[in-house]
Amino acid sequence: MSDKPLYVTEPHLPPLEEFLPSLREVWDSKFLTNGGPMHQKFERALCEYLGVEQIALFSNGTLALLTALQALRITGEVITTPYSFVATAHSLLWNGIKPVFVDVDPVNLNLDPAKIEAAITPQTTAIMPVHCYGHPCDVAAIEKIADRYNLKVIYDAAHSFGVESDGQSVLNFGDMSVLSFHATKVFNTFEGGAIVCKDAKTKLRIDQLKNFGFVDETTVVAPGINGKMSEFNAALGLVQLQHIGEALRRRGEIDARYRALLADIPGIECLPPSPGSKHNYSYFPVLVKPEYGITRDELYAAMRTKNIYARRYFYPLISSFPMYRALPSAAAANLPVAHHAAEQVLCLPIFPSLTESDQQRVIDVIRSLGR
């Protein structure tokens, strides 16, 4: 059996010969950025595929998060999850906003709606949940709370390309949703991101903010940044869209096979699929329970000796990093579920080109090390 390195994900790329005509088109046009033809085509194609009305492309998902907060003029405090990649909370600090951490649901590891209201203060202006691992948040419960307290909702949907909840795109919930098209994501443009918003007026403001605040050649109306997606990235995205259906199908097969093969291993618990949702299988997290016989970190280290580079997404919690841990909401006693999950979670390799023998190799290592 091959001992090649296996990572949590590998970039999914189209055949090079399919990308070359688009690359030639960009090359010949000499239009490399600034909202060129590929950018416009890609935005329209994404709206159609994702079932959304408005989308604004960005050079990466972090700049999209920063701009979403600016576009909605968010200030004061924002309630968010400690169980995410650091960009979620970093985007708040960069905007001078205080993150307020709330614990997660023990089943789906998303922000727990039952804990949100107790964290609301007169300074709270918004909620920033994360659809963790592409599992939809309880969007209905979050919407009720936001409406009751007149709060904005910005979803960090970095994991949620193509995900649906109750028959519609999860990206249509809240005031805005932010996507990442980083190389490690289900859908990538090498680097990239996007904001999904409700109307053309809001999209116009977003487009101005990502282009230094320019309205026209001589008029600047806001302290914007340079967040534009290049024509090369947009061209790749257009080609990638032709393959996303097959990529998601393969991920679904791998997810199902993992669940079947892990079912009889004591102490290895798979997160359940969210009911009523269409998933994209962006990650395959398992929880390593005491019944397994060795700790998560021991399994993690042992797998690395076998060239299997599983990841502890998300460990440590955001709230444990130095720039956050002094916040009252970051106290471990405030976040028991998140801390428990962070000590047990391990994401296994999942990507469309993962073979059955590669997957069996992962399972064999897990099975051999358990009690």
Automatic annotation (TrEMBL):
InterPro entries: DegT/StrS_aminotransferase (IPR000653), PyrdxlP-dep_Trfase (IPR015424), PyrdxlP-dep_Trfase_major (IPR015421), PyrdxlP-dep_Trfase_small (IPR015422)
This protein's UniProt keywords: Pyridoxal phosphate
Domain of life: Bacteria
SUPFAM superfamilies reported in the protein's UniProt record: PLP-dependent transferases (SSF53383)
Keyword Secreted included in the entry's annotation: no
PANTHER family in UniProt: PROTEIN RV3402C, TRANSAMINASE
Family to which this protein belongs: Belongs to the DegT/DnrJ/EryC1 family.
Name under which the protein is recorded: dTDP-4-amino-4,6-dideoxygalactose transaminase
Organism: Roseateles asaccharophilus
